[in-house]
Amino acid sequence: MKNKVRALRTERGWTQEELGLELGVSRQAVNAIETEKHDPSLSLAFRIAALFGEGVESVFENPYRSSKRRDLR
Amino acid sequence: MPASPAAAQPNVLAPFFTWKHGAYLWSIAVAIGSYVTLMLDWVAHRFFQLPPVTEFVQVLTVICCVGMAAHVVTMLLIMRSNDEFIRSLTGKRVTIAAFATFGLLTIWGLLENIGWAPPFTLMFAYALFLLVHTLLVPFINADRP
């Protein structure tokens, strides 16, 4: 899932370890999210967004919110 | 929101290397140490006709069983960890390794039942599980979840 986690983290000058500590997950988990190899659970996504003071959809791109919205029906 | 999250928790390993991980390492060290010794004893007895050291083997067997039980329990505790990513990696490896071990042992048992395979001691089930689990590491890891 496309996201802005790396950009938001580097903006604040945090390392992956530091972000992981704050979220209660490992550095590997942070790296996997940043490189889009792992889609976080809803709970973790909310924690990440709250930590950066953003909404979930401004940190994680919603692939279903697009011009093809009607296709979901 | 803190300026630097690390300021609150300077020890990077502290939240991850908990007593559960220490217990895991100790239990696996005890289990594997005694297990390898028992396998060597089995091979010496089976192939080189060396007499078994009965009392030593009995004590070692009990130690091995306790170590393995502790290994299983601590593995389950680690799988309840907050880190969903590590939990997912461990879960995938353990599930595949368990199914592969059950499958291989059952196939062997079926072949043994009709005389197409030699008798196989279930003592090696754990070794088979660890082997499959280890073989999966290059395919299921932090870079290839």
Blueprint (SSEs and pairs):
The complex is a heterodimer of chains A (73) and B (145).
Chain A: H1 5-11, H2 16-23, H3 27-34, H4 42-51, H5 56-59
Chain B: H1 19-47, H2 54-78, H3 84-113, H4 125-136
Describe the protein.
The complex is a heterodimer of chains A (73) and B (145). By secondary structure, chain A is an all-alpha fold. Chain A is built from 5 helices and no strands. Chain A has helices at residues 5-11, 16-23, 27-34, 42-51, 56-59. In chain A, helix 2 (16-23) packs across helix 3. Chain A is globular and about 35 Å long. The two termini of chain A are 21 Å apart. Chain B is built from 4 helices and no strands. The radius of gyration of chain B is 20 Å and the shape is flat. Chain B has helices at 19-47, 54-78, 84-113, 125-136. Chain B has 145 residues and is mainly α. The chains are: A mainly alpha (73), B mainly alpha (145).
Brief descriptors of the model:
heterodimer; A: 73 residues; mainly alpha; globular; B: 145 residues; 66% helix; flat
Mean pLDDT of chain A: 89
Run of helices and strands of chain B: HHHH
Low-confidence stretches of chain A: none
Oligomer kind: heterodimer
- Major sheet details of chain A: none
The pair of chains with the biggest contact is: A-B, 24 and 20 residues
Q: State the end-to-end CA separation of chain B.
A: 31 Å
What amount of the residues of chain A lies in strands?
under 5%
What is the residue-mean pLDDT of chain B, rounded to a whole number? 79
Helical segment count of chain A? 5
Q: What structural category do the secondary elements of chain A indicate? A: mainly alpha
Q: Residue share in helices of chain A?
A: 40-55%
The ordered H/E elements of chain A are: HHHHH
Extended strand count of chain B: 0
Q: C-alpha Rg of chain A, in Å? A: 13 Å
Question: Summary?
Answer:
Chain A has 73 residues and is mainly alpha-helical. Helix content of chain A is 51%, strand content 0%. The model of chain A has no long low-confidence stretch (mean pLDDT 89).
